[in-house]
Write a structure and sequence with these properties.
The structure is a single chain. By secondary structure, the protein is mainly α. It has a domain of about 240 residues. Strands 1-2 form a two-stranded antiparallel sheet. Strands 3-4 form a two-stranded antiparallel sheet. A hairpin with a 4-residue loop joins strand 1 and strand 2. Helix 6 crosses helix 13, helix 6 crosses helix 14 and helix 7 packs antiparallel against helix 8.
Length: about 400
């Protein structure tokens, strides 16, 4: 009894219970790591002689539009926050949708560029018919992204080609292929092509007026639809069940009659469509002219972090995209308050690192529990033979006395 009490002290049990709760609940882990990221950032800002309050006042201004220094309010900041968050959410879905099928999609950047290129081509050459023009451009982007991602999925399913290597290579093919196409468009120079017709743009007079002239556009509604599409398809449909079953165990899914090859290809195609939608929103919503991409924008790679923090779920990824969009939107405001803008990148990096540590903490906790069970079972096992031997002696003595 003393050994058992010594092995299971209340303080240790309370600590282990807290750690187990934090590591078993994915949502709780995400909240904790975000708070830890901000805590470390606060310490770093104070260490370099700046006021951490400047970072938090900049974040408040982005989220609410309220400038705590001048006590003025401008809703435009909220609109720009959404503009920055939309491609992050969609690229996060690109990574998360594939992850639910057991795939690691690092190609969201290339799929995003494929969407930009297709949207720009349609925007520049399609007849300027109101509504139909930008609808066709968005559909072309979705198709381009689905093909760009679906090719990788098909190679993975048919020839077991690593999707990690394939998507990395496809990123560069998309970038330099896009440059080759746009540089040969009429009127193009080294960094842009001529302005699009107004019928190709995703501008929304309503959203612009509501947000005091921000760049918020129809992409806002597309992003909301994407959130519900992800949530419904992955959690409420037969396709989503097939994708999740494939991600859990391919052999079991195949045994259950699910076409694993089809699931892998479809998952990568849908993932590519999500990223390409982000590209179309940027191309036709944030710019009035076509761009000749010199480098990668980075939204696809940021989407990996967004999906990790959001646990590859619809609502979690959406919230993580809003978080990262908030940090990126706050960078100029932080600089105006003498806060290095790089602090936002540090927060994002720390959040990803802390999320990655979750698996290690789970392994340590599982090992500790196994060790405790093993140590508790050793005294019981050693006591059993002794008890049996004593009982045998007593039985022998008793039988001798009777005799």
């Amino acid at each position: 009894m003393k050994q058992q009490r010594a092995g299971f002290r209340p303080a240790e049990m309370f600590r282990d219970r807290i750690l187990e709760t934090l590591t078993r609940s994915d949502g709780m882990v995400s909240v904790v790591v975000v708070l830890l990221g901000f805590l470390v950032a606060t310490i770093l800002i104070a260490a370099v002689g700046r006021n951490p309050g400047g970072m938090y006042s900049a974040i408040v201004q982005v989220v609410t539009g309220l400038d705590l220094r001048r006590f003025t309010w401008n809703v435009r900041y909220i609109g720009e926050w959404f503009v920055m968050s939309m491609p992050l959410i969609l690229c996060g879905f690109s990574m998360g949708f594939a992850a639910r099928t057991g795939l690691f999609n690092i190609g969201a950047e290339g799929q995003y560029i494929a969407g930009i290129t297709a949207a720009q081509l349609v925007g520049a050459f399609f007849p300027p018919v109101p509504v139909l023009h930008w609808v066709t451009a968005v559909l072309a982007a979705l198709a381009a992204g689905a093909v760009w991602g679906g090719v990788v999925g098909w190679f993975k399913a048919r020839f077991s080609v690593s999707e990690v290597v394939a998507t990395i290579m496809m990123n560069y093919i998309a970038l330099y292929g896009s440059r080759l196409i746009t540089l040969n468009m009429p009127g193009a120079n080294t960094y842009r092509i001529p302005d699009f017709p107004k019928t190709a743009l995703l501008r929304s007079p309503l959203l612009e007026s509501v947000t005091n002239g921000s760049r918020l556009n129809y992409g806002f509604w597309f992003t909301i639809l994407a959130v519900f599409f992800y949530w419904i398809v992955m959690g409420k449909t037969r396709l989503g069940y097939s994708l999740r079953a494939t991600g859990f165990n391919k052999n079991a899914a195949r045994y259950g009659g699910i076409s694993v090859n089809t699931s892998i290809t479809a998952s990568m195609a849908v993932s590519g469509a999500f990223a390409a939608l982000a590209g179309a929103i940027i191309a036709l919503g944030s710019f009035s002219y076509g761009r000749v991409l010199a480098t990668q924008d980075g939204y696809g790679f940021d989407g990996i972090a967004v999906a990790l923090v959001g646990n590859s779920t619809a609502w979690g990824t959406a919230l993580a995209g809003l978080l990262f969009g908030m940090l990126k939107s706050a960078q100029p405001l932080m600089q105006s308050r003498q806060i290095p803008k790089e602090i936002t990148s540090i927060i994002m990096g720390l959040v990803v690192v802390f999320i990655s540590l979750r698996a290690g903490v789970r392994l340590v906790l599982d090992w500790q529990m196994k060790e405790k069970v093993r140590k508790a079972s050793v005294p019981a096992a050693s006591a059993s033979p002794a008890t049996g031997e004593a009982s045998a002696k007593e039985a022998a003595t008793g039988s001798g006395g009777v005799t």
